[in-house]
Specification:
Rossmann fold, 2 domains, 10 helices, 20 strands, about 25% helix, about 20% strand, globular
């Protein structure tokens, strides 16, 4: 009798556990894996998502040699199927393959559609024996319109381009629920220059997006690598009213684009600082570009390995690879310039910018450059005169992770009425930036960073 009671208790507990697991599956929205990685092979599944620079809009200048261990969960011809990854990469992205309506001739080179995914995977295969599978999702428009997780259970998700819920569904059907190796996220251009009114929601939605993707895909510690926005060459004149790319009226189109671009970059940098297992990869120094907003083939050939190096360290936990660079500290001190040693009022200032995560030493291909001092609140009487500027950037001989910015005199003595003095790296939409480390990891764009003067 005791054995029967004990057996009944075990059966009861088992039933409760199975019921709880079933309830969890229903609550999580888990669906059947309809398209597992082919061949019954365990693979590292990477979610790659964002907009056109993530999809890949560069020209294919060299034919991809397909590797059977690099597969893509493709939506080509409206059919979901795993295929061997090959350029044009953009055609493999869900939902529409070609986000720009191009009809390239795939029998000739160059054609459009190369991106970062294949060079990323090729670099990983140099150091791992794992099969790799990509689940790629790209679309245009702002986060508030197409990526906001808060819309997934509301009527707004019926909008033609709303993609978040469909992304989660594809991850589950491809076997990524609870089984993603990592995610690469490259998005933000539309928030800065197209739907500019949505920008006020960008930080909130991005942070919620990170948390929601982890929860909704069953990967609570999912490593996420954010690609910071690259350059953009706007066709708006400074000081003139204009319309955004979605026809929103702007008082000064060039200024709006510049400030918005800086803002998106800075929020991306902050997300990597504030969120665990979120890493930033800079692109602000990469070139060339295929058009005013998209990176070209040669730039992606550097960006893919950059991301892979971070993944090898932070995701695969391998030694000897790169770590992401983060802004650590900024300090100022007076440095008398030899030419003005005997003249009063000409005390020059050195700004020391220190980074963490530098691999080897900071270096540059040519002149080290990319910094700017800005005075957002300059009184008229001050503006009519001269203001301190950065005229030289040196690598700190005593610290391989620091830069010394040499400034003309008077920075410490600027009138308080000028408001905060701000420091930027990668200012505006099309800066000239050159600084990387020995692993070719670029320092991140940042700013505004307020300099303490008093």
């Amino acid at each position: 009798m005791k054995r029967l009671n004990r057996l009944s208790l075990i059966i009861l507990i088992g039933s409760v556990c199975i019921g709880a697991l079933a309830a969890f599956a229903l609550e999580s929205g888990e669906v059947k894996v309809t398209h597992p990685y082919p061949g019954g092979v365990k693979a590292d599944l990477w979610l790659v998502a964002g907009q056109s620079n993530m999809g890949g809009y560069a020209t294919v200048k060299k034919e991809t040699v397909p590797h059977p261990r690099i597969m893509f969960f493709s939506a080509a011809k409206d059919e979901d199927v795993w295929v061997v990854a090959k350029d044009p990469q953009e055609r493999l992205m869900y939902p529409h393959g070609d986000a720009h309506g191009m009809v390239p001739d795939f029998t000739r080179l160059p054609v459009g559609g190369s991106g970062l995914v294949i060079p990323f995977a090729q670099h990983l295969l140099k150091y791992t024996d794992n099969n790799i599978g990509f689940i790629g999702i790209t679309t245009g428009q702002s986060m508030a319109r197409v990526w906001d997780p808060e819309l997934k259970d509301k009527e707004e998700q019926q909008l033609p381009n709303y993609i978040y819920a469909r992304m989660i569904d594809r991850v589950k059907r491809a076997g990524g629920y609870g089984n993603l190796k990592g995610m690469i996220w490259y998005q933000g251009e539309s928030d800065a220059i197209e739907f500019t009114k949505d920008l006020v929601h960008y930080k909130r939605i991005l942070y919620n997006f990170i948390d929601s993707v982890r929860r909704d895909t069953g990967n609570p510690d999912l490593p996420i690598i954010i690609v910071q926005l690259c350059r953009f060459v706007p066709n708006r004149l400074p000081g003139f009213p204009a319309f955004s790319e979605s026809k929103e009226p702007l008082e000064d189109g060039f200024k709006t684009y510049s400030r918005n671009w800086e803002y998106v970059r800075e929020i991306q940098r902050q997300a990597a600082r504030d969120k665990d297992n979120v890493y930033l990869v800079s692109t602000v120094d990469l070139y060339p570009m295929v058009d005013p907003i998209h990176l070209e083939y040669e730039a992606f050939q550097r960006l893919g390995p950059r991301i892979a190096e971070i993944a090898l360290t932070k995701v695969y936990k391998l030694q000897g690879h790169a770590t992401p660079i983060q802004l650590e500290s900024v300090e100022m001190f007076e440095a008398t310039h030899p030419s003005y040693a005997e003249d009063e009022g000409h005390g020059y200032v050195t700004i020391r910018v220190h980074f963490s995560g530098v691999n080897g030493r900071l270096t540059s291909n040519g002149m080290p450059w990319g910094f700017e001092i800005r005075y957002p609140e300059v009184p008229v009487d001050v503006a009519r005169g001269s203001v301190p500027v950065i005229y030289r950037v040196d690598f700190d001989p005593n610290d391989p992770s620091a830069l010394l910015l040499q400034c003309t005199g008077g920075l410490l003595d600027m009138p308080k009425g000028t408001g905060p003095v701000q420091l930027f790296y990668g200012p505006g939409v099309f800066p000239f930036c050159t600084i990387v480390d020995d692993k070719d990891i670029g320092i991140p764009a940042f700013g505004p960073y307020e300099l303490a003067r008093y």
